[in-house]
Amino acid sequence: MPSTRFTAVPEGVYPAPVHAPYKSTRLRGPLQAALRITAPAASAAIEIPPSAVTPLEADLTAHGEGPPLGEKIVVAGRVIDEDGRPITRSLIEVWQCNSAGRYFHSRDQHDAPLDPNFFGFGKFLTDGDGRYRLVTIKPAAYPWGNHANAWRPAHIHFSLFGNVYAQRLVTQMYFPGDPLHALDPIFNSVANARARESLIARFSIEDSVGDVMLGYTFDIVLRGRAATPFSP
Amino acid sequence: MAGITTSQTIGPFPHESWRWAFDAAAPPALTIEGSVFDGGGQPIDDAMLEAWTFAAAHSKHNQTVAAFCRAPTNARGEFSLALSTTPNDGVYVTLFARGVVKHQFTAAFLEDHETPARSALLQQVPADRRATLIARKVAPERYRWDIRVQGSAGNPETVFFDYE
User: Fold this and answer.
1) Would you call B26 helix, strand, or coil by DSSP?
2) Which of the residues A46, A187, A220, A231 has an alpha carbon 20 to 30 A from that of A142?
3) Does residue A210 lie within any of the structural domains?
4) Catalytic residue among A155, A181, A196, A223
5) Are B67 and B56 in contact (CB under 8 A)?
6) What's the CATH number where A204 sits?
7) Region for A139 from its dihedrals, namely left if φ exceeds 0, alpha if ψ lies in -120 to 50, beta otherwise
8) How many CB atoms lie within 10 A of CB A181?
9) Which domain holds residue A185?
10) Min distance B140 CA to chain A CA atoms (Å)
11) pLDDT of amino acid A232
12) Does the annotation mark A216 as catalytic?
């Protein structure tokens, strides 16, 4: 019997598959609703060997000849499921542009400089309590051609494997107080305001490291509840 | 009960971050090749696919993560999933792409291996949509399976799942 059940996601919590202001969705969004099915695989354990990551991969500032340009930050958070249980020793991948708004990627042609000391990707595991900690530099906004004067708000891409197969999630973390949030079709493809705002990290003086870097908190809730609800 | 964190597209630039897991099984026990198409019939050249073969033996895999295979689509929208083992009941595939705002769960069933009568999963798919999940054999241990992320006239949309 599966150890995890996945209740239906309320309308508006996920982005609309076709959200016309985000042009790429028009021909890429599925038109049919996902088929609700039962499969033991949904609860299949996802086990990432500890050897798949090295400690240095959680520090995106440590891969050049010297420190990258930009504002060094630490992003820390906890990953839990819908019952509040920690998602332990699970893989998170991240990627982002540099402090000038340029990705280290052959297809990014934005006329902003690459930083020879910043590549903008990493991966790490959550600990036994679901916590993670990522050191990086604050990414910048960049233009993306979706419409006239279209700028993506600064964001870090997060890819989470979860503890079981159906917990997989890819999302984006945004920064508080960014005036571009209100103008971004990708952010606003999520109709539910609470769900949208859950993508915005909180500034955290507690996670800030004196003389080194400011801190942000980004907690993540993956789908999944105990198959047998706890009854006291 | 906490509200879930919502999804966002992978965008066009995940490759450097995701590349570590492009290590194909060598030699593969099974290869599934195909293309990913949009609703206009155009190939999608920046998609990512992940495949899991659960509940199968992985005695000779040489991949970083057992039972797991990840592959990008190329400039022509083609992918090749080199699997370390033959599945018991479907190859579980997750699709990501720019413009795909949430990962899409689907599965491929080998035409000479998994019939609806044998597959608990395929039985749950309406009979008239099952064809989108069948991988056709093109050579020994090689199969062809295309994904249409959005359907159009004459080209049915691939069935995507939401697990209970």
Assistant:
1) coil
2) A220
3) yes
4) A155
5) yes
6) 2.60.130.10
7) beta
8) 18
9) 53-224
10) 26
11) 47
12) no
A152 is catalytic: yes
Cα(A100)–Cα(B88) distance, rounded to whole angstroms? 48
What is the per-residue pLDDT across A160-175, written as a single tens digit (0 to 9) for each?
A: 999 999 999 999 999 9
Tens of each residue's pLDDT in chain B, 164 residues: 569 999 999 999 999 999 999 987 778 889 999 999 999 999 999 999 999 988 655 545 556 788 899 999 999 999 999 998 888 789 999 999 999 999 999 999 999 987 777 888 999 999 999 999 999 999 999 999 999 999 998 999 999 999 99
pTM value?
0.96
List the single best residue of A5, A9, A22, A27 to mutate versus B (max B Cβ within 10 A).
A27
| Structural domains of chain B, with CATH | 15-148 (2.60.130.10)
DSSP state of B105: E
Range list of H helices, B2-151: 15-18
Partners of A13 on chain B (C-beta within 8 Å) are 3-4, 6
Distance CA A227, CA A100 (A): 46
Please name the residues in contact with B147: beta carbons below 8 A apart, sequence gap of 6 or more. Answer: B34, B35, B36, B37, B93, B95, B106, B158
* Single-letter code of the amino acid located at B109: F
Give per-residue pLDDT as tens, A59-72: 999 999 999 999 99
- Would you call A157 a catalytic residue per the annotation? yes
Say how many domains are in chain A. Answer: 1
Distance (Å, whole) CA A191 – CA A214 = 31
Contact predicate A40/A216, CB 8 Å: no
For B132, list phi and psi in degrees, rounded to 5: -70, -10
- A36 is annotated as an active-site residue: no
Nearest chain A residue to B15 by CA: give it: A105
ipTM, two decimals? 0.95
Candidate from A8, A17, A95 with C-beta closest to B101: A17
How far is Cα B37 from Cα B77, in angstroms, rounded to an integer?
A: 7
Q: Name residues of chain A where pLDDT drops below 50.
A: 232
Active site residue: A5, A152, A181, A223, which one? A152
Both tokens of A38, joined, read 């039962």
